[in-house]
Amino acid sequence: MFQIGKTIVSEEILENDFVCNLNACKGACCVGGEYGAPLEDSETDKLLNIYDEVKPFLRPEGIAAIEEHGVFVKGEDGEWETPLVNNNECAYVVFSDDGIAKCGLEAAYEAGATKWKKPISCYLYPVRTREYSEFTAVNYHKWEICDPACSLGKELKVPIYKFVKDALIKKFGKAWYRELEEVAAEKTR
């Protein structure tokens, strides 16, 4: 672990490789698990404000789940998250013709219907952050369904922090990311 500003960062994001391999996993991270995608407080308002623009990009099952439970829900841990369809996939998931789970929020963004891409927790994955009173923890979330992404990352020699560069900059800023790159360079000498 090392510190950058008010963050405590796991060295695992420097030491492990990762590149999403959707052809192998089919977007399992959006379908598997017991909870929806974690949401920051500010993201709940964004979801409320863009739902009407996003709705045309969603599946009927997702729309039904959202209209039954809300555009976001309070999880068992007391934190905000996206609702699920039948306690399974994220309500915002859509499927491509070849069965790959993709984000309906991102589809709306890419079509120009919204200006918000997707929750930062999804954008950062496999990095997870956790807010504490004095600092933010920045950790690698290892999940066996992402083993193909780890293999592809290793083959392409792309460390996690480089794979999620844009998301880390969005979350923490360019200066923070430059400092992360400096730490990474020191550790690989």
Brief write-up:
This is DUF3109 family protein. The protein is an alpha+beta fold and 189 residues long.
What does this structure look like?
It is a single chain. The protein is an alpha+beta fold and 189 residues long. The chain has helices at residues 12-15, 22-25, 41-54, 60-69, 104-110, 120-124, 147-156, 160-163, 165-172, 174-187; strands at residues 2-4, 7-9, 73-74, 80-81, 84-85, 89-90, 93-95, 101-103, 127-131, 136-140. The strands form 4 sheets. The protein has a 4-stranded mixed sheet, with helices on one face. A two-stranded antiparallel sheet has the order 3-4. A hairpin with a 5-residue loop joins strand 7 (93-95) and strand 8 (101-103). It is globular.
Q: What tags apply to this protein structure?
A:
globular, two-stranded antiparallel ribbon, 189 residues, alpha+beta, single chain, four-stranded mixed β-sheet, 42% helix, Rv0495c, 10 helices, 16% strand, DUF3109 family protein
Topology pattern, helix = H, strand = E:
EEHHHHEEEEEEHHEEHHHH
Gyration radius from CA atoms, angstroms: 17 Å
The overall average pLDDT, rounded, is: 94
Measured distance between first and last alpha carbons = 18 Å
- The percentage helix is 40-55%
User: What is the strand content?
Assistant: 15-25%
Largest sheet: 4 strands, mixed
The number of helices is 10
Shape: globular
Number of strands: 10
> Largest sheet, order of strands side by side?
1-2-10-9
Class from secondary-structure proportions: alpha+beta
Low-confidence segments, given as residue ranges, are none
